[in-house]
Amino acid sequence: MSLIANIIRSEVRDLSAYHVPDSAGFVKLDAMENPYTLSTEMQQALAERLARVGLNRYPVPSYSALKSAIKRQLGVPPDYDLVLGNGSDELISMVSVACAKPGAKVLAPVPGFVMYAMSARLAGMEFVGVPLNADLSLDAAAMLAAIAEHQPAIIYLAYPNNPTGTLYDTADIEAILRAVGDTGVVIVDEAYQPFSPVSFMSRLAEFDNLLVMRTVSKLGLAGIRLGYMTGCPALLNEFEKVRPPYNINVLTEAAAEFMLEQVAVLDAQAAQICQQRSLLAAALAALPGVQVFPSAANFLLIRVPKAEQVFAKLLKQKILVKNVGKMHVLLENCLRITVSTPEENSLFLDAFSASL
Ligand code: PMP
């Protein structure tokens, strides 16, 4: 259709829309969601809180109460400001918009989170993917060489990484931060921090080019869409300029404030998920031919002979995992499984063992 060719940029025409399979009626282990729902008492208290929200007014633009709650409950140093996003997906696109000078590049290890590349291309920037080692650890030498060659404006390090669950070595990240200097911003994406023993949040004062990005999605609030980013005040100030006004709606704001008052409930769920992760990893590793990669996130990456067939058999049993085999050569025959409740994990394990 010539209208499309006339008006739509080729970068957009070449993309496929982010695909999410229909999961109604499935045991849903494909999207790293927290499987727990709220107690009836909490649902009622939340409903009462939301009922008091004025829907006729725009949000208060400073979001100061929400930002204070995030700082207090989620371990952001009190002297740092935050930029808020409608999910961290929106933060990624804000960073792209702000940095997309002609010729600017974005660099990240691959396989990694798909939105880094998608957002870069949408903003007209080249994406440089640096392959991980075969054991899915960071190839630090290749990263440093690629940084020297391409001088990227943005470097993303998902810590831990999706879809591998890997934690990169702290010393490698430090070396990258130093090598990049003032030629680029290093975004340490801690989406899976609730399940990880480490964080770069305490290192902000040491590096002017470091931003830490997080989300409440994996903690149990994926539906409300709220991400936050902190770090060097001068950089945050620039990214704040491209934040769409009122991007966090009043219902998200109120629900987040309510849930952060009860963050202990979510923390306890994260601790249970970590326990289940160990049990599930051990059970999977005991099955013949199954390789389980170490994970510091709420999912496990496994390699299994004939992963396509296993995936199809699981689908027939109404169990949805993520088939990542086609994402990258390093992920051949790999499946990514969200760690869930003991009940759902054992449903998965039974169906999985039967499908081998
Ligand atoms: N970063 C990473 C590494 C992710 O895996 C995801 C979601 N899968 C996100 C960011 C986006 O999270 P959200 O937009 O839900 O905040």
From TrEMBL:
Cofactor: pyridoxal 5'-phosphate
Family: Belongs to the class-II pyridoxal-phosphate-dependent aminotransferase family. Histidinol-phosphate aminotransferase subfamily.
Cross-referenced InterPro entries: Aminotransferase_I/II_large, HisP_aminotrans, PyrdxlP-dep_Trfase, PyrdxlP-dep_Trfase_major, PyrdxlP-dep_Trfase_small
Taxonomic path: Bacteria, Pseudomonadati, Pseudomonadota, Betaproteobacteria, Burkholderiales
Protein name in the entry: Histidinol-phosphate aminotransferase
Keywords tagged on the record: Amino-acid biosynthesis, Aminotransferase, Histidine biosynthesis, Pyridoxal phosphate, Transferase
Enzyme class, first EC level, given as a word: transferase
Catalysed conversion reaction: L-histidinol phosphate + 2-oxoglutarate = 3-(imidazol-4-yl)-2-oxopropyl phosphate + L-glutamate
Assembly and interaction partners: Homodimer.
